[in-house]
């Protein structure tokens, strides 16, 4: 089978089959198009996500190995369990989405970031339409950690997280898992594995296996109260 990069057309829903993605760089599938809500949602339903820098065209990816986790399988270490029991943080849902995505972008400025101003605007629009969501971690009324991503049915596609206090991003991830599971969420896509995610229980699966799950889960509804603005409480086990 030939593998090549597709130049996207103006039709937002048209993406090539993810199996056609390049092996080097792994997962690069297409370039071009835009970041409209229709195109972004079409991409996530097909296991594709945008990732590029300011000086590049929009690039769309579907890597051969996908980092995922069942929410019920999040790993809480003994030290994290102790931290949760200390009740140092307040955790909210969808209270400060704009601040979370900006903080994620700011945290990566020195290394270059794919969370460009255009990306921030696009995902904020998705949030306003009810598709992108955030978990916030607060300490003494200051935002110290968080995570944001896109929820389609019982699949949550995580985009980025940040911390300004030790372990605050881990708290945000654990909170996402527990909250999403409570409302019927089945799978969290973390895109590309790294040691931080692995320590929380995230594992790799093949693109083919992930796509089979995603195709079904994006058609199944999540609990209606999952993404309303609210304060949530963590369990230490």
Characterise this structure.
It holds the Pfam family Leu_Phe_trans. By secondary structure, the protein is of the alpha+beta class. It folds into 2 domains: about 60 residues, 2-Layer Sandwich (Alpha-Beta Plaits); about 170 residues, Leucyl/phenylalanyl-tRNA-protein transferase, C-terminal domain (Aminopeptidase). Helix content is about 30%, strand content about 25%. The protein is built from 7 helices and 12 strands. An 8-stranded mixed sheet has the order 11-5-10-9-8-7-6-12, sandwiched between helices. The chain has a 4-stranded mixed sheet with strand order 1-2-4-3, with helices on one face.
In short:
With 237 residues, the chain is of the alpha+beta class.
Give the H and E element order. EEHEEEHEHHEEEHEHEHE
The neighbouring-strand order within the major sheet is 11-5-10-9-8-7-6-12
CATH class categorisation of the largest domain: Alpha Beta
**Going by CATH, what is the homologous superfamily of the largest domain?**
Leucyl/phenylalanyl-tRNA-protein transferase, C-terminal domain
Overview features:
Alpha-Beta Plaits, 2 domains, single chain, 4-stranded mixed sheet, 237 residues, 8-stranded mixed sheet, 7 helices, alpha+beta, globular, Aminopeptidase
How are the SSEs ordered, and which strands pair?
Layout: E1 6-7, E2 28-31, H1 37-45, E3 49-50, E4 59-61, E5 65-69, H2 78-86, E6 90-93, H3 97-107, H4 117-128, E7 132-139, E8 142-152, E9 155-163, H5 168-182, E10 187-191, H6 195-198, E11 203-206, H7 207-217, E12 230-232
Parallel strand pairs: 1-2, 9-10
Antiparallel strand pairs: 2-4, 3-4, 5-10, 5-11, 6-7, 6-12, 7-8, 8-9
